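Usage

Read records sequentially. Each one opens with the input sequence:
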Amino acid sequence: MSGRLEGKVALITGGGSGIGAALAKRFVAEGAKIVVTGRRADALAGTVAALPGGAALAFAGDVTKPEDAAAMVEATVKFGGKIDVLVNNAAIDPSGSIVDVPIDQWKRVIETNLYGPFFTMRAAIPHMIAAGGGSIVNVASLAALRRIPSMPAYSSAKSGLIGLSQAAALDYGPHNIRCNVICPGATRTSMLENSMAALAESQNTDIAGALKFLTRFNPLGRPAEPDEITGAAVFFASDDSSIITGAVLPLDAGACVVDPNGAAVASGGTSWGQG
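and closes with the structure output:
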């Protein structure tokens, strides 16, 4: 049986590890030809080496540079003859409050997480228009819908990515180009695990313990695995979502439905209003 992406050609940014590498594996399994991009050529080579021969191409580049973004798109068109799907996954997440964050770091986060998708979309959309349509899947974050302390640059960029995506959905829907957003919550990638080192130390536990502590108020009570993010991306990339554009889908183990005050009460062993 053919996969849901049979015959499609996709560009996936940030494809060297974590969610990006999982997306690469799933897209190929669903029948797509893909180009994976990122700044680390060795990581990209590892992603491609794990896939069937001829199904994927690694192309090193930096999405913060418009000329690199354009080259990524051109490499995809050359490799597959077209570009049907663009997945903007590349991101960084250093912390720092508004007063404390170094200006250069603020700029790097905004440039990677918001300018990068803008540059790749700007390069890909004309090809999609010429081909009669396409699908853009932008990977934002639960932080685009809620806020993480001391991460204003990340939250601002990811919130902006939702606005950019919905603007694209509006402007290019008449060209049969759809643009949707997925918002992963805590997902067990190396990036998240690195971010949990201080929490693990403060709680006198290991990374697994820190992740359990982190997600203790989520209805599902655990982080996602990267593979669990891929199904929604495949859905938005495929013709199964042909009538959907401008949508924002949380993939967060139910975190966005939690009232933190009520969760705090419940963690104390009581119920709200209990006499």
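Summary fields computed downstream for this record:
- The two ends are 59 Å apart (CA to CA).
- Residues 188-223 form one domain.
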